[in-house]
Specification:
Blueprint: H1 5-23, H2 28-32, H3 42-55, H4 57-67, H5 82-85, H6 90-110, E1 121-124, E2 128-131, H7 132-155
Antiparallel strand pairs: 1-2
Length: 179
C-alpha cells in the first residue's frame, strides 16, 4: 500500500483516543505490568510515545524537507521518556500525548506536503537513506506496534488465569520484539 497523507493523518489522529480507552482509569498494577526485565510497561509505552512526539517525528520531517541527506537525524533515545513520566498521573500523560499529537498533526498539515514530496530523502543514523514517505509509514506502524504491545502486555497478566482457554488465545504466547 502506498502512503497517502490523508490516511496517515486520519490514523495518527486516532491513537490518543485508543490509548485513553485502554489506559484511562486503570489501576496502577495494570499500568506498570511488564513482560520481563528491561521491557516497557503500558505506562512506559505512553512515555515513549510522548517523547517521540517531542523529538522524533516532526523534527525528522523538517530535516528531510529543509536539509535532505546533508544532516543526519539525531539518534533517538528509546528510554528518553523516563523523566517525562515521573510523578505524573496517567490522565496527565494521556492529555499531554493528545495535545502533542494534535500539535504534530497541525504542523504536518501546515507543511502542505504534496505526494511528490514523499520521495524526498534524509539520513537515519542507523538505517541510512530513508524517504519522507517511509518516515510517515513508520510513524503509523510505530503507533500500531506499541498499541499491540500494550494489549499483549496487559493480556499476559491473565496468562495463567485463563486456564485451558490459553490454547485459543494466541496473544498470550506471541513473541515480543521490542521492550
Amino acid at each position: 500500500m502506498d502512503v497517502h497523507l490523508k490516511d496517515t493523518t486520519a490514523f495518527l489522529a486516532r491513537t490518543p483516543a485508543v490509548l485513553s480507552g485502554l489506559l484511562c482509569g486503570m489501576p496502577q498494577p495494570w499500568l506498570d505490568c511488564r513482560e520481563g526485565p528491561k521491557t516497557f510497561s503500558p505506562l512506559d509505552v505512553l512515555g515513549h510515545l510522548i517523547y517521540g512526539e517531542q523529538v522524533d517525528w516532526i523534527p525528522r520531517i523538517r530535516i528531510i524537507l529543509e536539509q535532505g541527506e546533508a544532516r543526519p537525524f539525531d539518534p533517538f533515545d528509546r528510554v528518553g521518556f523516563e523523566d517525562l513520566i515521573a510523578g505524573k498521573t496517567i490522565e496527565e500523560l494521556l492529555n499531554t500525548f493528545e495535545a502533542l499529537r494534535q500539535a504534530s498533526l497541525q504542523e504536518l498539515s501546515a507543511l502542505k506536503l504534496e505526494p511528490t514530496m514523499l520521495s524526498r530523502t534524509g539520513t537515519h543514523p542507523a538505517l541510512g537513506q530513508v524517504t519522507l514517505g517511509q518516515l510517515l509509514a513508520a510513524w503509523v506502524v510505530h503507533d500500531l506496534g506499541h498499541l499491540a504491545q500494550i494489549e499483549r502486555v496487559m493480556a499476559r497478566q491473565y496468562r495463567d488465569a485463563v486456564g485451558p482457554w490459553r490454547e485459543y488465545l494466541p496473544i498470550l504466547d506471541v513473541s515480543r520484539s521490542n521492550p
